[in-house]
Amino acid sequence: MPPYTFFVTVNGGGGGGGGGGGGGGVVVVVVVVVVVVVVVVVVVVVLVVVLVEVLVLVLVLVLVVVLVLVVVVVVVVEVVVVVVVVVVLEVVVVVVVVVVVVVAVVVVVVVVVISS
């Protein structure tokens, strides 16, 4: 017997008396079935809403992780570029200073040789 039968027995007709009773039980069964269907629909809707919220949360977390990775990559690239530019500029400055010193020494040597 289904679990809702006790409602039927509570609201059942009185029997005898020219066959008058028995109709109330059917109404209660229909009401119980409608209530069960409504509860199932509400539970399914709540589960779907919770699932969608969890999926949105996961998507947001993935986007945050991707943005953090992009920021880290950009910062690393900027640091590498700055370091490379600074090193290249230092090398260029050292080369220019060495060339100037060599040219100055050559000029001094030439002047000394010519004047003597």
Using brief descriptors, characterize the structure shown.
single chain; 116 residues; mainly alpha; 2 helices; rod-shaped; MetI-like; ABC transmembrane type-1 domain-containing protein; transmembrane helix
Your description of this structure?
This protein has one domain (5-115). The chain has 116 residues and is mainly α. It is built from 2 helices and no strands. The protein starts with a helix and ends with a helix. The chain crosses the membrane at residues 26-52, 59-85, 91-114. One of its GO terms (biological process) is transmembrane transport. It is a multi-pass membrane protein.
Could you outline the blueprint of secondary structure elements for this entry?
Layout: H1 5-11, H2 23-115
Helix pairs in contact: 1-2
Transmembrane segments: 26-52, 59-85, 91-114
Protein name: ABC transmembrane type-1 domain-containing protein
Organism: Dreissena polymorpha
Report the biggest beta sheet as strand number plus sense, adding barrel if it closes.
none
Q: Could you say which structural class the secondary elements and strand pairing correspond to?
A: mainly alpha
The percentage helix is over 70%
The SSE string, one letter per element, is HH
- Give average pLDDT, whole number: 82
Question: Whole-Å distance between the termini?
Answer: 131 Å
Compute the CA-based radius of gyration: 46 Å
Q: Which spans have pLDDT < 50 for at least 5 consecutive residues? A: 4-22
Organism: Dreissena polymorpha (Zebra mussel)
Membrane topology: Multi-pass membrane protein
Protein name: ABC transmembrane type-1 domain-containing protein
Keywords: Membrane, Transmembrane, Transmembrane helix
